[in-house]
């Protein structure tokens, strides 16, 4: 290979590698093929915290090291809620939402994405305590109400998100784009 | 044929790439030989350009600040481009370095630390790139952030799900961009620490490529940044579902799968790949019976000259005080090999004039025995003998003859004791052509460098003065450079023929006839 040809081939190879670098740096993919909109449910609810206590028996206490012999043991948890979502009269979600964490004593988190066709839709959301609320919860100013609902008609554009979330100040579910 | 002489499909691919690049750029500037050093050089480029970009980045307005920088027609645009392309090139170089080490099986035994730290380096580079792309806060950043948050949510250590922050429920806090920026700046510190660990077992690590190659690559990347500048893609919008996402394949190659795979599946796949990669040292380790033994020192022969200690590329040899020096009258110092650090390259055997060190079967003394058998069996009188490295050496070491010349394989050019060359010539060989790997392609790092110095620059154990240098040549050829060997044989044949009819004036033209044969290799390309 002559020197000139070698230099030309060397420069050509370098240009080729740089071109691959540029192309690879700006590739694209289709993240979502369907031009659907999304109804996103995202909120955090404090829920109602209950504490269940019991007394240890003498045998149980005897098995424990002296410094751990606490007579009363309590475990707390957040009472579960039921989430029901209806879109245009069709039930899309109906599930129990339990407190986060291994002991279910953390707040309740809702994060759901529902794909829907663009256009007008009737959205109905219900987030209600399973069972009856305790008296303490009824008087707790910071507690999430035992029942939250949203009933609204929205027009969803292509690839847009309608967010349904909980407004802690107004203690109600709201929707916004 | 030895294990190292066997050539898998991957090794053929590597040999072809190396051969092609050697023809185009010459072995000195073959970028694939400098892939590891290129990564470090590109880190430095990223550091310099990154510091510049830092002055313009605003945590409160990430997208607009980068858009303003990109719109700046002079410095800002191309420095951002250089930063991006250099980061891509770093991943490519690191990937190729990994491929080379894997194919050449330089991943087990004493090299395990380098392999594992190299993998960690690559992982850290990818994570660093991740944070870098999130800084831009475009659609790719949104995808990366949301996937990252879902992956974080798999860890049972956070008080509340991280992904909640990116649902649009609340505006993204500035602290998120601050934390991300902090990670993007802090991670490179980890990179430099890992680079130090990566090369910690190497003597004289080559951290930077040759200047011409450095400037060539930086110039090429700069030209790319100027001629094909980086463009802004649409801004992230948590209330929009991205349709087409422009992404950097080198860092986010997995991103297109992230929507079809659940976070748990993505994390599991990543974990499997990581575990397999980390197990490569175990998977590629040959069976015990096929492993080359580490070097040993024959303390009776050791003169304490320190040459093996100086030449060892892995710092596996230390010099100790000899306990019985006074009583025996031997040297006060003696060499000692640490088998845990020795890769059995045998370079110490080539460095030892009294032939007192080396791996079993490849010490200087053992080599003399091997060459004696070779001479008895092959009768090299009047013929050229090719002393070829089994790892590369033009890919001819597994043959008995090549282009009419006899082939004498060695495990590494650096392992070759110069007495073998002398022995071959004294036995009547017409000439000895040593085919070594190019210096930056040596599987044992410094074999060709020390070999060349022993042959031509009187480094211990040097080729004796009495040896006729006109009959000895050294050529550098990778496994894919067979043509280089063919040309070198022809040239040596011509030189030997000229010797037969040489006039006294020509006969003493040592500068011409005894030149270090690098120009021979260059002239063939």
Overview of the molecule:
The complex is a heterodimer of chains A (177) and B (525). With 177 residues, chain A is of the alpha+beta class. Chain A has three helices and eleven strands. In chain A, strands 7-2-10-11 form a four-stranded mixed β-sheet, with no helix packed on it. In chain A, strands 6-5-8-9 form a four-stranded antiparallel β-sheet, with no helix packed on it. Chain A has a two-stranded antiparallel sheet with strand order 3-4. A five-stranded mixed β-sheet of chain B has the order 7-8-6-9-10, sandwiched between helices. A two-stranded antiparallel sheet of chain B has the order 2-5. In chain B, strands 3-4 form a two-stranded antiparallel sheet. The model of chain B is unreliable at 1-6 and 519-525 (pLDDT under 50). Chain B contains 21 helices and ten strands. The interface between A and B is large, with 38 and 43 residues. Strand 1 (27-30) of chain A pairs antiparallel with strand 1 (244-247) of chain B.
Helix content of chain A: 10-25%
Oligomeric state, counting identical vs distinct chains: heterodimer
Q: For the report, how would you describe the main beta sheet of chain B?
A: 5 strands, mixed
Mean pLDDT of chain B: 91
Biggest sheet strand order of chain B reads 7-8-6-9-10
Portion in strands of chain A = over 45%
Outline:
Chain A is of the alpha+beta class. Chain A has helices at about 5-25, 60-65, 135-140, and strands spanning about 25-30, 35-45, 50-55, 70-80, 80-85, 90-95, 110-115, 120-130, 145-155, 160-165, 170-175. Chain A is built from three helices and eleven strands.
Descriptive labels:
heterodimer; A: 177 residues; alpha+beta; four-stranded mixed β-sheet; four-stranded antiparallel β-sheet; B: five-stranded mixed β-sheet; two-stranded antiparallel sheet; disordered C terminus
Q: How are the elements arranged and paired?
A:
The complex is a heterodimer of chains A (177) and B (525).
Chain A: H1 3-25, E1 27-30, E2 37-45, E3 49-55, H2 58-63, E4 72-78, E5 81-87, E6 90-97, E7 108-116, E8 119-129, H3 135-139, E9 147-156, E10 161-167, E11 172-176
Parallel strand pairs in A: 2-10
Antiparallel strand pairs in A: 2-7, 3-4, 5-6, 5-8, 8-9, 10-11
Chain B: H1 9-25, H2 35-54, H3 62-71, H4 75-103, H5 112-136, H6 139-152, H7 174-198, H8 211-227, E1 244-247, H9 249-252, H10 263-278, H11 280-283, E2 295-297, H12 307-311, E3 317-321, H13 325-328, E4 333-337, H14 347-351, E5 357-359, H15 364-378, E6 384-389, E7 401-402, E8 405-410, H16 418-426, E9 431-436, H17 447-456, E10 472-476, H18 482-500, H19 504-507, H20 510-513, H21 518-523
Parallel strand pairs in B: 6-8, 6-9, 9-10
Antiparallel strand pairs in B: 2-5, 3-4, 7-8
């Amino acid at each position: 290979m002559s020197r000139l040809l070698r230099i030309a081939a060397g420069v050509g190879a370098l240009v080729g590698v740089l071109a691959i670098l540029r192309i690879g740096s700006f590739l694209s993919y289709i993240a979502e093929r369907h031009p659907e909109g999304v109804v996103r449910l995202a909120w955090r609810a404090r829920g109602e915290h209950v504490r269940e206590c019991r007394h240890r028996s003498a045998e149980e206490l005897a098995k424990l090291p002296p410094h751990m012999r606490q007579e009363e043991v309590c475990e707390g948890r957040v009472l579960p809620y039921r989430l029901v979502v209806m879109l245009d009269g069709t039930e899309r979600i109906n599930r129990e939402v339990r407190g986060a964490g291994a002991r279910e004593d953390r707040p309740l988190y809702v994060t759901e994405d529902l794909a829907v066709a663009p256009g007008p839709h009737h959205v109905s959301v219900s987030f209600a305590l399973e069972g009856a609320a305790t008296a303490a919860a009824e008087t707790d100013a910071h507690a999430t109400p035992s029942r939250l609902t949203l009933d609204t008609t929205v027009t969803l554009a292509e690839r847009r998100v309608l967010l349904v979330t909980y407004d802690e100040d107004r203690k109600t579910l709201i929707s916004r784009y | 044929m030895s294990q190292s002489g066997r050539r898998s499909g991957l090794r053929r691919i590597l040999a072809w790439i190396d051969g092609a690049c050697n023809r185009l750029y010459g072995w000195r500037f073959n970028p694939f030989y400098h892939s590891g050093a290129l990564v470090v050089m590109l880190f430095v480029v990223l550091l310099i350009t990154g510091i510049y970009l830092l002055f313009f980045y605003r945590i409160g307005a990430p997208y607009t600040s980068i858009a303003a920088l990109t719109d700046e027609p002079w410095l800002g645009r191309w420095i951002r481009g250089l930063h991006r392309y250099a980061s891509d090139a770093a991943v490519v170089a690191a990937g190729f370095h990994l491929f080379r080490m894997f194919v050449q099986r330089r991943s087990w035994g004493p090299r395990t630390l380098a392999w594992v730290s190299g993998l960690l380096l690559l992982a850290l580079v990818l994570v660093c790139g991740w944070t870098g792309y999130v800084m831009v806060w475009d659609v790719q950043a949104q995808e990366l952030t949301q996937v990252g948050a879902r992956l974080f949510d798999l860890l049972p250590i956070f008080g509340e799900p991280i992904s909640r922050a990116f649902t649009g429920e609340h505006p993204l806090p500035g602290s998120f961009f601050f934390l991300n920026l902090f990670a993007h700046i802090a991670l490179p510190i980890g990179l430099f620490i890992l680079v130090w660990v990566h090369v910690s077992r190497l003597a004289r690590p080559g951290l930077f490529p040759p200047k011409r190659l450095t400037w060539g690559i930086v110039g090429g990347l700069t030209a790319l940044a100027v001629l094909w500048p980086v463009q802004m893609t649409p801004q992230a919008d948590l209330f929009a579902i991205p349709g087409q996402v422009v992404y950097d394949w080198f860092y986010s190659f997995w991103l297109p799968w992230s929507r079809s795979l659940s976070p748990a599946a993505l994390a599991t796949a990543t974990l499997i790949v990581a575990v397999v990669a980390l197990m490569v040292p175990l998977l590629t380790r040959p069976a015990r019976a096929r492993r080359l033994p580490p070097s040993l020192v024959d303390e009776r022969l050791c003169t304490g000259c320190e040459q093996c200690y100086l030449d060892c590329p892995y710092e596996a040899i230390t010099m100790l005080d000899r306990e019985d020096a006074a009583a025996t009258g031997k040297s006060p110092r003696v060499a000692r090999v640490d088998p845990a650090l020795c890769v059995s390259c045998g370079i110490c055997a080539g460095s030892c004039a009294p032939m007192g060190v080396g791996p079993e079967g490849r010490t200087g003394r053992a080599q003399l025995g091997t060459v004696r058998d070779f001479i008895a069996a092959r009768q090299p009188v009047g013929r050229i003998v090719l002393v070829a490295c089994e790892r590369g050496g033009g890919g001819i070491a597994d043959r008995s003859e090549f282009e009419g010349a006899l082939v004498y394989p060695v495990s590494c050019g650096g392992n070759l004791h110069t007495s073998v060359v002398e022995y071959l010539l004294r036995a009547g060989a017409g000439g000895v052509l040593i085919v070594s790997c190019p210096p930056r392609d040596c599987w044992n790092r410094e074999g060709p460098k020390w070999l060349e110095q022993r042959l031509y620059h009187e480094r211990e154990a040097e080729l004796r003065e009495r040896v006729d240098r006109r009959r000895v040549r050294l050529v550098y050829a990778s496994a894919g450079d067979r043509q280089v060997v063919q040309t070198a044989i022809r040239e040596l044949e011509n030189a030997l023929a000229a010797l037969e009819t040489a006039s006294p004036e020509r006969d003493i033209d040592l500068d011409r006839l005894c030149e270090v044969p690098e120009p021979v290799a260059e002239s063939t390309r």
